[in-house]
Write a structure and sequence with these properties.
alpha/beta, two-stranded parallel sheet, Rossmann fold, binds UDP-4-deoxy-4-formamido-beta-L-arabinopyranose, single chain, seven-stranded parallel beta sheet
């Protein structure tokens, strides 16, 4: 028997596409919307090739109220939405703050107003980020959901914090008619085992792993390790690298919780830190990649990157316990999946 219909905004993006695959595997009916601002239409074909099914897809801009009104008119039986649609490059957001505030806030606001129009009940899983914690103090590492939030260091991070505030106020005002689960990602990495979907950075990759794989395959001359003079064991920054497929599965668990066990929710909005609970440095990732793939990575130590936090990794205990979810794919396998994907898209 078909489960509920789930809207996935930004569903042709990196995490969105992997989540669509996992929702389908869990038996949900999925409606995907995207404006291809950071993806391509062939991602739909690739998702369909993995699931073996046609995907309901509408090309639209979530920040366009008319588009969203049409969407809900066409699909009034949407039971929940997973909201990925947003710009997400930290550095770019510093150069283009107005675009980031407009797009990231308007898309959420349009979603909320159209989803709950006429007092209709709503359930939203929000794609948030560990950037809301800034640089946690030593006593707050690993980071749990009770760690203090700190002013974000980029317009991108600020939009995530503002969106969480919007969701808090909207769910409070709707007195139980709007349920929200905000998932705070650490560092998503890797690609689907089929190598049919993965991270498709536009231009020069901002994130570490795509730069590593593009250097390994010869597309980039050399990886710059941004600083080895931090107060960490090997001097390079520490992050919590989580397999994108494990991350995608957490979204299914969040939808399950809101649709099947909403009465267990502690209030109208819940937060979960999605990480492995293990911090690894940049140099450890590079070394682990070389060991896992047998491919050398040419790198140099470069100056620190502005805006980087020194070290942050998750305490995922609450997500493990409450969502019944755990990121347990061995990182060597994850790094190999990224390498297989890189080779596939360059073949
Ligand atoms: C990781 C580490 C860099 C590139 C990301 C996303 C952000 C949010 C949080 C979801 C840092 C170092 C990188 C390179 C390097 N995710 N690095 N050389 O900054 O933790 O932020 O996760 O919302 O959207 O961007 O990830 O991969 O950019 O950097 O040395 O060429 O790798 O300095 O220490 P970051 P990242």
């Amino acid at each position: 028997m078909k489960k509920a219909k789930i809207l996935v905004t930004g569903g042709t993006g990196y995490i969105g596409s992997h989540t669509v695959v996992e929702l389908d595997a869990a038996g949900y009916e999925v409606v995907v919307v995207d404006n291809f601002s950071n993806s391509t239409p062939e991602v739909i074909d690739n998702i369909e090739s993995i699931t073996g099914k046609k995907i309901t897809f509408l090309e639209l801009d979530c920040a366009d109220k008319d588009h969203m009104r049409l969407l809900f008119a066409k699909h009034p039986d949407i039971s929940a939405a997973i909201h990925f649609a947003a710009y997400k490059a930290v550095g770019e957001s510093v150069d283009k703050p107005v675009e980031y505030y407009h797009n990231n806030l308007s898309s959420l606001l349009c979603l909320l107003s159209e989803m709950t129009a006429g007092g209709r009940r709503g359930s939203v899983v929000f794609s948030s980020s560990c950037t809301v914690y800034g640089q946690p103090k030593a006593e707050h590492l690993p980071v749990s959901e009770s760690a203090p939030l700190q002013p974000a260091t980029s317009p991108y991070g600020k939009t995530k914090q503002m969106c969480e505030d919007i969701l808090t106020d909207a769910s409070a005002a709707m007195k139980g008619a709007l349920k929200v689960i905000s998932l705070r990602y650490f560092n998503p990495v890797g690609a689907h085992p089929s190598a049919k979907i993965g991270e498709l950075p536009r231009g020069v990759p901002q994130n570490l792993l795509p730069f590593v794989t593009q250097t390994a395959i010869g597309l980039r001359e050399q990886l710059s390790v941004f600083g080895n003079d931090y107060n960490t064991p090997d001097g390079s920054c520490i992050r919590d690298y989580i397999y994108v497929c494990d991350l995608a599965k957490a979204h299914v668990k969040a939808v399950d919780r809101m649709l099947e066990r909403a009465d267990e929710m502690e209030g109208d909005i819940e937060y979960f830190n999605l990480g492995t609970g293990r911090g690894l440095s940049v140099l450890e990732i590079v070394n682990m990649f070389e060991k896992a793939t047998g491919v050398k990575v040419n790198y140099r130590i470069a100056p620190r990157r502005a805006g980087d936090v020194e070290q942050v990794w998750a305490d995922p205990a609450r997500a493990n316990k409450v969502l019944g979810w755990k990121a347990d794919t061995p990182l060597e396998d994850v790094l190999r999946s990224a390498w297989e994907w890189e080779k596939k898209i360059r073949s």
